[in-house]
Amino acid sequence: MTTNPDILVIGLGPAGSRAAARAAAAGWRVVALERKSQAGEPVQCAEFIPAMLDQELAGLGAVTVQNVRRMLTFVEAEPGDETADFNGRMIDRAAFDAQLAEAAAQAGADCRFGMALRRIDGDGTCHLADGTAMRPRLLIGADGPRSRVGLAIGQVNTALVETRQIAVPLRRAHDGTDIFLRADIPGGYGWLFPKGAIANLGLGLEPRARHMLRPLLDRLHRQLIAEGRVGAEVIGRTGGPIPVGGRLAAVGCLRETMVLLAGDAAGLANPVTGAGIAAAVQSGDLAGVAAAHCLAGDAAALVDYGHELADTFDTALSRAMRRRQALLRRHAGARRPGPSDLRAGWIAYDAYWAA
Fold first, then answer.
1. 44 and 145 in contact (C-beta within 8 Å)?
2. Mean of pLDDT over the chain
3. Statement: residue 280 has pLDDT above 60
4. What is the CATH architecture assignment of 2-64+90-158+244-317?
C-alpha cells in the first residue's frame, strides 16, 4: 500500500524532529519515521550541547544532567590548558531526543518509531521494512552520516571519523570538558565529559586506524584510573561514525519529489570537534521552514535553504577542514605532529582561529 504525505522526514534525531515540527506547525501533512524503537537510544554521542541552544530550545532544564563551565585541553603529557567560560550542558541524550520528537508530534507530525527505510525509488517512493510505501511531495533526509536519502540523490559523506565511547564512574565532581590531543590519535582526539556521577570517556580517529580505537581508549581509561579521576567499571559502551568532510549539497530531487538533507546527513558536523547537535537543530529548523514555503508555492525556498546553510555553517566548516587537513598531512609525513601542530588544530588555541 502506498500513501502520499505532503512531507516525509526520515530520521527523528534533533534535525528530523525539528524539521517535522516546523513543517507540521505550518499545516502540512507530515510523517516522520525513525528506525530505532525509542528516541535517542542507543546514545551515540558525548551528550554535550553548547549554551547557544538555550536560545533555540525551551525546556532544556528537564533533560540537563549537569552544567559545564570550562574546557581543559591536555596536549600530550603537558598540564591542561584551561578555556574559561566554555559554557554548555551535559544532557540525557535519549530524553533530549524524546522531548524534541514529542514536540513534533504535538505540532501535528505523525511520528513513527521502529520504522526502517528499505529503499528509495527513482521517483521518490520510499519503501519501508513493513512492506508499506510512501511517495511524499517533499522528502527530508535527517538519517545520519550514512544517509539513505543522501545516497538517493548522490550526496554521500565519504570522510568519516570512527568513535568509541564508554561510560565510567566519575570519582570527583568536575565542571569541565576534558580534551586529550596526542600525536598517536590520527585525525581525532580523546575526551572526558562529566555527567554527574558518571562520565563519557571516548576517542575518535581516522577509519584507517580503527584497529587502534580500543587499545588507545583502554590506555586513556587506565591513565585516568591511575590519576584517581574515574573508576575501572565500564557501565556502557557505544560508538559510531561522524562526518568530517564538510557540507554536502543539501537540495536535490527524485523526479517530482523534492529532497532536502539536514544535520549529519548534510555533513554539518564540525570536522575538528565532531560537534553536531546544534547544527542538527538549526538545519532542521531551516529545512522544515523551507519545505513548508516550497509546498506553499515559494519557488525559491529550496535554493534559499542551500544559501542559508552556506551562510550559517560554511565559515566554521571551512576553517575546521583546513585545520584537520593540516594535521593529517603531518600524520602522513616524516614528522609526526608536535604540540604546536596539535594546538593549531584545536579550537581552544589562538592559532586555530588565525587566518
1. no
2. 95
3. yes
4. 3-Layer(bba) Sandwich (3.50)
Residue pointed to by grid coordinates 570536522: 271
- Compute and round to an integer the Cα radius of gyration of the chain: 20
> Which pLDDT score is estimated for 312?
97
pTM for this prediction: 0.96
| Residues 314-341 pLDDT 10s | 999 999 999 999 999 998 887 889 999 9
What strands, in cross-sheet order, belong to the sheet with 48-50? 48-50, 88-91, 64-68
| Closest to 213 measured CA to CA, from 233, 188, 178 | 188
Report the distance separating Cα 75 and Cα 348, nearest Å: 11
pLDDT value at residue 2: 53
Which amino acid belongs to residue 35? R
For 327, the grid coordinates are: 594535521
CA dihedral (193, 69, 285, 254) positive or negative: negative
Domain ranges for the chain, please list them: 2-64+90-158+244-317
| HEC string for the chain | CEECCCEEEECCCHHHHHHHHHHHHCCCCEEEEECCCCCCCCCCCCCEEEHHHHHCCCCHHHHEEEEECEEEEEECCCCCEEECCCCEEEECHHHHHHHHHHHHHHCCCEEEECCCEEEECCCCCEEECCCCEECCCEEEECCCCCCHHHHHCCCCCCCEEEEEEEEEEECCCCCEEEEEECCCCCCCEEEEEEECCEEEEEEEECHHHHHHHHHHHHHHHHHHHHCCCECCCCCEEEEEEEECCCCCCCEEEECCEEEEECHHHHCCCCCCCCCCHHHHHHHHHHHHHHHHHHHCCCCCHHHHHHHHHHHHHHHHHHHHHHHHHHHHHHHHCCCCCCHHHHHHCCCCCHHHHCC
> Contact at 8 Å (CB) between 327 and 333?
no
Which backbone phi and psi does 103 adopt, to 5 degrees?
Answer: -65, -40
**Residues counted in the chain:** 355
Task: Write down the residue that cell numbers 545520519 correspond to.
Answer: 144
Q: For cell 575518535, name the residue.
A: 204
Orientation angle between helical segments 93-106 and 14-25, nearest 10 degrees = 20
